[in-house]
Amino acid sequence: MTLPFVPPARPVTGEDEIEAVVRVMRTGQVAAGPEVEAFEDEFSRLVDGLHCVAVNSGTSALHLSVLALGVKPGDEVIMPSFSFAATANSVAIVGAVPVFVDIERDSFCVDPAAIEAAITERTVAIMPVHLYGHPAAMDAITAIARKHGLKVIEDSAQAVGAALNGKAISTFGDAACISLYPTKNIHSIEGGIVVTPDAEVARQVRLLRNQGMEERYKNEVIGLNNRLSSVHAAVGRVQLGKLAGWTKQRQENARYLDAHLRGVVVPPVAPGVEHVYHQYTVRVGAEVEGGRDGLAARLAERGVGSGMYYPIPIHRLPSFQRPDVRSRVSGELVETEKAAAEALSLPVMPTLTQEDLERVVAGVNAL
Ligand SMILES: Cc1ncc(COP(=O)(O)O)c(C=O)c1O
């Protein structure tokens, strides 16, 4: 008998999300409106009451934050190369220069010492990524930013609900960007949120997402259409109500995997960190036959999915080799290259059954 495939990740969408969509569709107000405002207000409770502006993707949240904070062509923004391309795209698309630095071995997040070494007179901002749901070293990063007069834009796409020393992730920077893509810890089908402590930055993002208008046809700045619809907001509101339970379940699944996996390095958690396990990412060393890719292939044969985030660091992507795209690498990206070769994300989503978890463990330990 073939057992059902355990996917690496699966969006969870319940009947109540479907009912919320129908409810909003029946109101007739399906574009932006009170439903979006309610979502922003409710999300704001997760992030110490800071300003929240909902947009149509995590990428838009990053792009509009970069614009709202006044990043200009030629300005440098320091970030890890070990991330999803959206992190760097949001900077390169405005003609600014992503400066790629190395990560810390344990957290997979940007290394503060590498940030400090990369600062030049052109540096205007730091963009840490809370990769896999593990917070970056925000105390060190915000101290560097203060010392050098730099902005901080948190890429919190993967870290909704995470915290560091009891302080919510997304409340450390001048702006923070959430993704609500279906496989994230909560989703709104597509969507994103900009979180900021600064009322003027929030106003700029609101203008930018709506063609530069606050008042209809009195466009104040050049803007785009990056609005979230009420239908998407309705899904997000229902999901938000489920976040705490799902996070707990992800953490319990992670604890089970930590306790039972053999032959791989389970994800370390730094002191004071509330890890929300968007991904449960192990390191597979060369001593495992076929290395990381070999393990992934053998897991697939046993019906266990896994994911490689990210096999090619951003600085080596073809899009960043183009002569018309400016970027820079600072220092040796030794840990970045190791992580790109060794990181393997195993299923950890809240809907896994005990049998699924046992199959993941059996699959890895068989090797
Ligand atoms: C680290 C990171 N940044 C940004 C994004 C972009 O988010 P979205 O897919 O919602 O545009 C993602 C999502 O995949 C991500 O993982």
Automatic annotation (TrEMBL):
PANTHER family with a match to the protein in the record: DTDP-4-AMINO-4,6-DIDEOXYGALACTOSE TRANSAMINASE, TRANSAMINASE
Cofactor(s) recorded in Swiss-Prot or TrEMBL: pyridoxal 5'-phosphate
Protein name: DegT/DnrJ/EryC1/StrS family aminotransferase
Pfam families the record matches: DegT_DnrJ_EryC1
Provenance organism: Catenulispora yoronensis
Keyword terms, alphabetized: Aminotransferase, Pyridoxal phosphate, Transferase
InterPro entries: DegT/StrS_aminotransferase, PyrdxlP-dep_Trfase, PyrdxlP-dep_Trfase_major, PyrdxlP-dep_Trfase_small
Highest taxon in the source lineage: Bacteria
MF terms in GO: transaminase activity
Family: Belongs to the DegT/DnrJ/EryC1 family.
CDD domains associated with the record: AHBA_syn
